[in-house]
Amino acid sequence: MLDTTQSDTAPTREEPQEEPDEPRGCLFALSQPPLMIFLAVIGCLLLMAALHDLLLL
After folding, report:
1. Of these four, 2, 9, 22, 48, which has the most CB atoms within 10 Å of its CB?
2. What does the alpha-carbon distance between residue 6 and residue 8 come to, in Å, rounded to a whole number?
3. Which are the contacts of 30, defined by CB distance < 8 A and separation ≥ 6?
4. H/E element holding 36?
5. How far apart are CA 51 and CA 56, in angstroms?
6. How many CA atoms does the CB half-sphere of 54 hold within 13 Å?
7. What is the pLDDT at residue 26?
8. Do 35 and 29 contact (CB within 8 A), yes or no?
9. How far apart are alpha carbons 45 and 37 in whole angstroms?
10. What does each C-alpha distance from 30 to 5, 25, 26, 27, 56 come to in angstroms?
11. pLDDT 10s digits, 18-57
12. Mean per-residue pLDDT for 4-26?
């Protein structure tokens, strides 16, 4: 059986983590493919509903 107990001496990192040059904001989130696909599907559904209301009702 594997020993899963934690030891008292955990490895430490002496190097500080580098901060990114620019913070990631909203434009970075919008550039993600899954979000863009989701927004495109919602937009198409809204467009189809609007066209249905305007042209067929």
Report:
1. 48
2. 7
3. 36
4. helix 33-56
5. 8
6. 6
7. 75
8. yes
9. 12
10. 42, 9, 6, 5, 34
11. 666 777 777 777 778 888 999 999 999 999 999 999 998 8
12. 67
pLDDT of residue 29: 73
Q: For residues 28 and 21, what is the distance between their CA atoms, to the nearest angstrom?
A: 14
Do the Cβ atoms of 30 and 36 come closer than 8 Å?
A: yes
Distance of CA 26 to the CA centre of its chain: 10
What residues contact 29, with CB distance under 8 A and at least 6 apart?
35
Rounded to an integer, what distance in angstroms lies between the CA atom of residue 12 and that of residue 36? 39
Separation of alpha carbons 55 and 9, rounded Å: 71
Q: How far apart are CA 52 and CA 46, in angstroms?
A: 10
